[in-house]
Amino acid sequence: QELRPKSLDIKQEELGDMVEKEMASTSEAIEDAVRRIEEMMSQARNESSGVKLEVNERILNSCTDLMKAIRLLVLTSTNLQKEIVESGRGAATTQEFYAKNSRWTEGLISASKAVGWGATQLVESADRVVLHTGKYEELIVCSHEIAASTAQLVAASKVKAEKSSRNLARLQECSRNVNEMAANVVASTKSGQEQIEEKDTMDFSGMSLIKLKKEEMETQVKVLELEKHLEGERVRLGELRKQHYALAGTYEVAEDEEAKPAPAPRRGILKKPPLAQKP
């Protein structure tokens, strides 16, 4: 009991109610996301035109398809969970089944929260992109997060399900559909970003030689700064993921492997260093 992660500070008899509440909350979040996307679509048609309207419509349509796929996924997951409880609880009550399988129940709650959170974040990112106050990269990251949380929900449901379950087969099919729709969001976002950037391409034809050289040097400086910043952000992302896994109770450090000294090179294979070449 002491070694168990304190991920959920609730009583076991409340776990069953928590599952139902979280699944209902996720469904509600998705329905709200669909309504917000429809409102954004109407707003985009009124406030934009040309290439920007085309890009916004394509991105929002792909987001709508993704939300519909997620809604079907959550519905199928709910049906599978009911099937699992009914087939596994025996003479016990539903609450007793959830309490007995508390770790599995906590996994379902966590996965459901992740799916609902991902859908909400996607809609907020899409809203900022349509209003030209956000970044296209946010939509891409949100799509990847939704695909990951979907896999988490399927894995949590699959643990207790019968292999021959029709609901399990439907859930796996829904998961593949969600991944496909998430990939469509990424594709439409990237193509839209390229269209906008091509439209806003700078024209250097009117610059003098000195001005061009100055712009070139400034761009080189900016490239070096961005490369340095990118490397720092990658290191930060790695540390964040380590902490995430540690809090989830699944991160383990391979101390034995790290403690092993590197093998000493064999003397027989040492070679004379090559002579320096003339420039």
Automatic annotation (TrEMBL):
GO process annotations (BP): actin filament organization; clathrin coat assembly; endocytosis
Q: Which residues form a coiled coil?
A: 207-243
InterPro entries associated with the record: I/LWEQ_dom_sf, ILWEQ_dom, Sla2_fam
Protein name per its UniProtKB record:
HIP1R protein
Tell me where in or outside the cell this protein is found: Cytoplasm
Query: What species is given as this protein's source?
Result: Centropus unirufus
Q: Which Pfam families does the entry mention?
A: I_LWEQ
Annotated ranges, domain I/LWEQ = 7-248
Q: Name one GO molecular function term.
A: clathrin adaptor activity
Show the GO cellular component annotation of the record: clathrin-coated vesicle; cortical actin cytoskeleton
Q: Which UniProt keywords apply?
A: Coiled coil, Cytoplasm
SMART domains referenced in this protein's UniProt entry, alphabetically: ILWEQ
Q: Which segments carry the region annotation Disordered? A: 254-279
